[in-house]
Each structure stands twice: as structure tokens, then as C-alpha cells.
From TrEMBL:
Domain (FHA) ranges: 59-117
Protein name: Reverse transcriptase domain-containing protein
UniProt keyword list: Hydrolase, Metal-binding, Nucleotidyltransferase, Protein phosphatase, RNA-directed DNA polymerase, Transferase
Record bears the keyword Magnesium: no
Biased segments, Basic and acidic residues type: 1-12
Annotated ranges, domain PPM-type phosphatase: 375-649
Entry membrane topology: Peripheral membrane protein
GO MF assignments: metal ion binding; protein serine/threonine phosphatase activity; RNA-directed DNA polymerase activity
Residue ranges with Low complexity bias: 234-254
One GO CC annotation: membrane
Classification via SUPFAM superfamilies: PP2C-like (SSF81606), SMAD/FHA domain (SSF49879)
Main location as per UniProt: membrane
Species the sequence originates in: Cladocopium goreaui
Length: 657
């Protein structure tokens, strides 16, 4: 981003470039809707190979009744994705699309080496006895543990809700099994209210009792705990995410010699538990490598371990969380793995259909595929600058709803060093999601639009406050960052921006701006700065900073001196919203280094022509966005870092007449 001597054009010129500008969001004037009532938006998943012989290649998953069957049998009419030399079985894995619910499901199709799904931190994978979990180069076998007797059922049920304190009371009242709780508790709670229960306790027990039929369906829930046993793995597929020495031959659960070497590490019931994964070897790292991010971590009570597993092939410790819900056990990682490159995997059972979500990773043979909601890509070049201060992020699944897909894309342009831009990239989307959860979550909201607006606002402001607090003595107080982010919730695009990075929609071939640059020369921004006790000189705040809104920049905020009475630079975003239409081809986002040499319409025309020149179903956003960044720096001679991001909404952008 320019801080001195670059791109001092008046803001009016920049505004005039766009053919249209999306209106500022006014959620109170928008219809009050629930999540299931809003449009789903484009639903056309992509599987992109991210590791193996075909890395970088992608396919749009077949949505017909036939589905997509991966395999190595070239003579099979059932195989729709024939792949050779990749260790696949003749019929290896299958993906089916359910049109009524817009869901994709992955299952193993009788493969030899299995179909594996990567364990995530914000989505869970179902597990059951007989399955294997691969952590680094170690295998954890899931086995059926001790039976949960009638006497233990009530204790296990209460512990799931952290209501163990009522165990003696319920036992005294004759509730000695889950069936007795199911039959009588709701009817007898009122009588217990005044004598044994306060109102808060009553509500807690009532909620647990009302959920009983959903969470523990009669005769359809596991009446046993899970036992976890670990052994060193001898296979190399799927990968651990770190460099290790490959070996051969994945062991099976029935191997007698290996079963004798199993070491039980934990037993987990309905209340769930956490297994500490401890890397072994001299390369293991025991501390957080990011001191800034470590400053905002808090200890989670869920991380109190019930067992410990030694792991080879990993460098950093992790927590494997086991939970129970709706009659099944599930597994996921803790939040600290959000940006980890370490991989853990669950092998799907023969009868298991895994609900595929965007951002999921699955492994078959020597290949790994990432599931994408949108075919999207980003690209950056440092250009002629001495340092690189841009960042970007593509989160295909924010994991904030089961009703509608929610994705997040962002461009961050730092200045004065990388401390602020690194922090914003790591924390902004997390804080937005936290704000949504604090409001009850999108799936329970009766006013989705208002909750989205408020959560975006709170997420931006909280991220700035966190960084400014940490900046005191930890990081450089001179660093700052712009941000333009797009949250695509179902068929709605919510765009929030601070600074001069931009977001555009290509609608019917025309550029529709989703953001407006925050320049000190904008009349409203200049007025705000002057009313706060500052001034604008040479189109800059105090003659120095080229943007009027940004994260960080402590000297223009908490470090302000008289006669400055308010922060001159703020992190309050402007938020705009648009509903996607069939005329929308793509979303494009970039920092000011690109828009210094491209108008909005020029950028749209450039990308449209690049995509349309590729065959349908093979239009690669990575090639197109790489071309426009190269054009900006090497042909049009932008003097800044350039980072851009492209999200396509259709399989084929058609050539214009």
C-alpha cells in the first residue's frame, strides 16, 4: 500500500471508475429471514487435486444420478473419473449429489487401501469401532470399549451436559436408566422445581430431557464407550503434512502381530474427551511459533486430556477431541490447528457416507483432493518493492451453518511492517465467526441479515482492539493494514472494507463495486478527520498516511495527542450486500497496487477474456488471476505489491459477441 508519494489521485477519480456501486447495507430495512429461507446460491462443488501426480488439476463433481466414481478400471462403464498410476483400486471412491438438499456424500467403493478424510478443527467426522485414525505416521485404532450399563447411562447422559451434580437427586427419584428418564422426567420436573431445583437448574434439566429423543434415539444409540489404541504406522498414504521417510504397507485392523503391539491410550464415553497428541523425536516443537497469535489464545477446558498418544511424523502437539451427538461419536481437532499443515485422517467404513463440505480434504491412493464450494484462486507478487506486505485468505467453509454454505475471502494490504497484516489475516475471520456464535449462531437466527451486519462490524473492531493491545511492547506500533473481505452466505455476498483494497462483481459483463476506497481526500472522510482534530494534506492523514481507515496505525489512534480528540484513522468498516444473480460471473478482489494501473471495468474485461479463452469446465481461476497480477506489475508497471483473488460462480464464462 502506498504511504508516501504514490497514487495521490483525488478520491472522486477513483469513484468515477466504477459503472455501479452496491448500496451500503441497511439490515433494519431488509426482510427478517431465517437461514433456511435465504437462497442457497450456486451449488456446484469442485474437487481440486492438491497432492500427487495431478496436483493443480480440478474437476466439477458430477451431479447426475450416476455420481462421480474414482477408479483405475479403464474398461468399467461405472467409473466416471479414470485415474491411472495413482495407486487407486479399480473402483475406489464415489461421490453422490442429493439435489433435494444440495448435499454431496463421499463413500469408499470397495478400495484396498481405503478412502481417508482429513480431520478438521471446525467440522467433525463420524467414527465407530473398527475404524482407523492416522496421525502423522502413527495409527490409532477405534475399538468398542466397556458397555454403558443402565446404571451408568444416567451419569453419562448428565455428564454430556455437565449436569453431574443432579445424579444423586435423579437416582433418589428412581431414574436409574435412560429409558426411565425418557418416560418420566419431563412429567415430574414441575414437582421438583420448588422443592429441589431452582429455576436455572430446572431449565437445564428440561433442555437435556427435551433433546433426549434426538440425541439418544430409542434403540439407535451406542451403549458402549470407545477405546483408542495406538501403534506406529508403516504406510505412507495418506500423508502427514510434514516431510517424513516413506515406508510401505498400511496395516489392517485384523493383523494379529500388530494387534498384539496395540497400546490402549484412552476410553471415552458420551461426555467426550480429548487425547493429547505428542510428537516424538528431536524435531518436535513444544511451543507456539507465533507470539502474536499466542497472545490471544486462551486455555480451553475441553483440552483437559483423558489420554495421550505418542505421534511420529509431526512437529507440533495437538488435541484430538472426541464428542457424541445424535446417536454417533465424532472426532475433530482443537482450534489451534486452524492453520496447521499437519494432517490427521479418518478411514471411512465400508457402510459410511461422509457429508462432504467445502474445505474438506480426502485422500485416495497417492492423491489428495480438496473440496471447493467455488473454483477460486489467489496470486501475489512482490513487484518492485523491497518488502512484501500483502496477504490473502480463502476459506471455502466458515462452518457457521448447516442450512447454507458460508464462505470467506479476503485481501489484506499491510504497511509499516508485517506485524499487523499477519495478525489481521489470522484473527479477523475467527472474530467474525465468534461474534456470530455470540449472537446465537446463524442457524438459530430469525434475523440473518442483521446478525451478519453486526458480526462483521464487531469482528473488525475487536480485531483492531486486540492488535492495538498486543502492539504495546510486543510488535511495532507503526504497522497497519487495510482489509476487504467478502462473506458469501448462501446466495448473498456481504462485503466489508477498511482502506483502499477493492472487491468487484462481474455482473452481465459490467463491474459492480462492492467497496469504496477509504481515502483521506474523500469528502466525508476528510470531514471526519478534521472534526477529530486532525488534518488532510497532500491527500494524506497528517500529510503521511494514504488511507483514512485501517487496522493498527497506533499513532493515529491511541497515541494521539492534543488537539486530536478522536482517532483519526478508524477500523470501522463500510458494509455492502448484494444477492447473487444468474448474471454474475465472478467475484474479484485486489489491493490498491493493482487498481493503480487498472480501472474496475478494465480488470473485469481482462479476467473475463482470460476465462472465456479456456474450454468450458476447464476455466482455471489460478491462470486468470496470475495473468492479471503479471500484467499489473510487468506490463503496466505498478510500483506496489500486487495481490489478487478470483472466485468464479459458473463452469463456463462465455465469450462476448
Amino acid at each position: 500500500m502506498a504511504t508516501k508519494g504514490e497514487d495521490d489521485r483525488p478520491a472522486e477519480e477513483a469513484e468515477a471508475e466504477a459503472d455501479a456501486l452496491a448500496p451500503l447495507a441497511s439490515p433494519k430495512g431488509m426482510e427478517r429471514v431465517r437461514m433456511e429461507q435465504i437462497s442457497a446460491g450456486p451449488v456446484d462443488f469442485v474437487a481440486r487435486c492438491v497432492q500427487g501426480l495431478f496436483a493443480g488439476r480440478f474437476i466439477y463433481i458430477n451431479r447426475t444420478a450416476q455420481g462421480e466414481l474414482f477408479g483405475s478400471d479403464r474398461n468399467s462403464n461405472a467409473v466416471t473419473m479414470y485415474i491411472e498410476n495413482a495407486g487407486l483400486s479399480p473402483s475406489h471412491a464415489e461421490i453422490k449429489f442429493t439435489a433435494a438438499t444440495c448435499q454431496y456424500f463421499l463413500r469408499d467403493a470397495g478400495s484396498t487401501d481405503g478412502t481417508w478424510v482429513r480431520i478438521r478443527w471446525n467440522r467433525s467426522v463420524e467414527i465407530a469401532p473398527g475404524q482407523e485414525i492416522r496421525i502423522g505416521d502413527s495409527l490409532i485404532e477405534v475399538r468398542q470399549g466397556p458397555e454403558i450399563s443402565d446404571a451408568d447411562e444416567v451419569e453419562q447422559w448428565l455428564s454430556t451436559y455437565q449436569l453431574e451434580r443432579f445424579q444423586d437427586l435423579l437416582k433418589e427419584k428412581g431414574f436409574r436408566s435412560l429409558s426411565s428418564v425418557r418416560e418420566r422426567l419431563l412429567q415430574e420436573l414441575n414437582a421438583m422445581l420448588s422443592a429441589e431445583l431452582c429455576n436455572e437448574d430446572y431449565q437445564s434439566l428440561e433442555m437435556a430431557a427435551k433433546e433426549l429423543d434426538r440425541m439418544w434415539p430409542a434403540d439407535a444409540y451406542p451403549r458402549y464407550k470407545l477405546e483408542f489404541a495406538v501403534r506406529p504406522a508403516t504406510g505412507s498414504t495418506p500423508t502427514s503434512g510434514v516431510t517424513t521417510t516413506p515406508t510401505e504397507g498400511v496395516p489392517t485392523a485384523g493383523d494379529a502381530d500388530l494387534n498384539r503391539s496395540l497400546e490402549s491410550i484412552a476410553t471415552v464415553g458420551w461426555a467426550g474427551g480429548t487425547i493429547s497428541l505428542v510428537p516424538q523425536g528431536s524435531a518436535a516443537e513444544e511451543k507456539e511459533v507465533d507470539d502474536v497469535l499466542a497472545g490471544v489464545h486462551s486455555i480451553n477446558s475441553k483440552d483437559s486430556p483423558v489420554g495421550q498418544a505418542p505421534v511420529t511424523g509431526w512437529l507440533r502437539p495437538e488435541q484430538l477431541r472426541i464428542g457424541y451427538s445424535f446417536g454417533r461419536y465424532y472426532v475433530h481437532f482443537s482450534e489451534r490447528s486452524a492453520e496447521s499443515e499437519q494432517k490427521g485422517w479418518v478411514r471411512l467404513r465400508e457402510d459410511q457416507s461422509h457429508w462432504l463440505m467445502p474445505q474438506d480434504l480426502f485422500s485416495i491412493g497417492t492423491l489428495e483432493f480438496q473440496v471447493l464450494r467455488f473454483n477460486a484462486a489467489s496470486y501475489s507478487e512482490q513487484g518492485f518493492r523491497a518488502t512484501m506486505e500483502d496477504e490473502d485468505i480463502l476459506v471455502q467453509d466458515l462452518a457457521t451453518s448447516n442450512w447454507r454454505q458460508c464462505s470467506y475471502f479476503g485481501i489484506y494490504d499491510g504497511h509499516g511492517g508485517r506485524d499487523c497484516v499477519n495478525f489481521v489475516r489470522r484473527r479477523l475471520h475467527i472474530n467474525i465467526v465468534a461474534a456470530l456464535h455470540a449472537r446465537g449462531g446463524l442457524d438459530k437466527s430469525a434475523q440473518v441479515h442483521q446478525d451478519m451486519h453486526e458480526s462483521l462490524m464487531q469482528g473488525f473492531l475487536k480485531t483492531d482492539q486486540q492488535f492495538l493491545s498486543l502492539a504495546q511492547g510486543i510488535v511495532s506500533s507503526n504497522s497497519g493494514s487495510t482489509a476487504v473481505v467478502a462473506c458469501i452466505v448462501g446466495g448473498w455476498v456481504w462485503c466489508a472494507n477498511v482502506g483502499d483494497s477493492r472487491a468487484l462483481l462481474c455482473r452481465n459483463g459490467k463491474a459492480l463495486q462492492l467497496s469504496l476506497d477509504h481515502k483521506p481526500s474523500r469528502a466525508d472522510e476528510s470531514q471526519r478527520i478534521e472534526e477529530a482534530g486532525g488534518f488532510v494534506s497532500f491527500h494524506r492523514v497528517l500529510g503521511r498516511l494514504a488511507v483514512s481507515r485501517a487496522f493498527g496505525d497506533e499513532e493515529y489512534k491511541v497515541g494521539a495527542t492534543k488537539p486530536i480528540v478522536q482517532p483519526l484513522v478508524i477500523a470501522e468498516p463500510e458494509i455492502r450486500v448484494e444477492q447473487l444473480t444468474p448474471e454474475d460471473d465472478f467475484l474479484f478482489m485486489a489491493c490498491d497496487g493493482l487498481f493503480a494501473v487498472f480501472s474496475c471495468q478494465e480488470a473485469v474485461d481482462f479476467l473475463h477474456s482470460r476465462l472465456a479463452a479456456m474450454p468450458p469446465n476447464e476455466q482455471d481461476p489460478h491462470r486468470a488471476v496470475q495473468d492479471i497480477v503479471h500484467e499489473a506489475i510487468h506490463e503496466r508497471r505498478s510500483r506496489d505489491n500486487v495481490t489478487a483473488l478470483l472466485v468464479t460462480f459458473r463452469r463456463a464464462v462465455l465469450k462476448r459477441p
